[in-house]
Amino acid sequence: MRPYLFIDAGGTLVFPNSAMLSEILREHAYSVAGERLDRAVAGTVYDYDEGLASGRRQWNPHSFFEQLLERAGIQAKHVKAIAARLEALNAQRSLWSTTYPWVRETLSWLATHGYRMSIISNADGRVAQEFARLGLAAHFEAIFDSHVVGYSKPDARIFQHAMSELGLQPEDCIYVGDMYYVDVLGANRAGMAGLQVDRFGLYGKWPGMRIPTVAALPDLLSDGLNWQDESLFPLRGEA
């Protein structure tokens, strides 16, 4: 039996458009390479997870760009102005608009090998549009966008809604996402296995099971992953 795969969108399958971000930064006399921006994005997510772990911070997407710019080495005096520009641009056209060849190859492999898949994403209602534009939508049975569903991860109800719509039980499923206290916590709250994506190895000392990118899924699944393994439930019972 194959597990049903629920997968996160941003940070897992689609990523900030580093070319567009670099262009905006060049307008302010900053030159930041794509790799550095990717690491800044991952570091910002990790900072939020650390804050969520300690109760010092709640997830706030509106301050995401400020945190990202600070991580990327932008001087504090320029952060707010550039972040406001990015916020405005993101409102017009989602900046989470890039994917990679290894994402496409992985999704094709999973589909070819009979894995059923859907998306569960905290987003602003544009996930289906972006996935259609990128040519990714055909791989998925459904896209559950928090803006449309009305619940956001880590609220278990968005996972329960998705399972109900598809006639699934928690033990049938694995959720794959990049945020520990949003993705893994939400999945575990719903009784579902949670597998974390940790592209730059920032969570090495945290409990749980993780992979660097979704490109590792084919090998992991081919090796006979037990999706009821306790390491996939590190936050079971967390309120």
What does the model show?
The chain has 239 residues and is an alpha/beta fold. The protein folds into two domains: 4-14 and 97-232, 3-Layer(aba) Sandwich (Rossmann fold); 18-92, DNA polymerase, domain 1, CATH 1.10.150. The protein has helices at residues 18-27, 34-54, 64-71, 76-92, 101-112, 127-134, 146-149, 156-166, 180-189, 217-222, and strands at residues 4-7, 117-121, 143-145, 173-177, 193-197, 210-211. It has a six-stranded parallel β-sheet. β2 (117-121), α6 (127-134) and β3 form a beta-alpha-beta unit. α2 (34-54) crosses α3 (64-71). The longest helix has 21 residues, at 34-54. The protein is globular.
Topology of this protein?
Layout: E1 4-7, H1 18-27, H2 34-54, H3 64-71, H4 76-92, H5 101-112, E2 117-121, H6 127-134, E3 143-145, H7 146-149, H8 156-166, E4 173-177, H9 180-189, E5 193-197, E6 210-211, H10 217-222
Parallel strand pairs: 1-2, 1-4, 2-3, 4-5, 5-6
Helix pairs in contact: 2-3, 3-4
Which descriptors would you attach to this protein?
globular, Rossmann fold, single chain, DNA polymerase, domain 1, 2 domains, 6-stranded parallel beta sheet, 6 strands
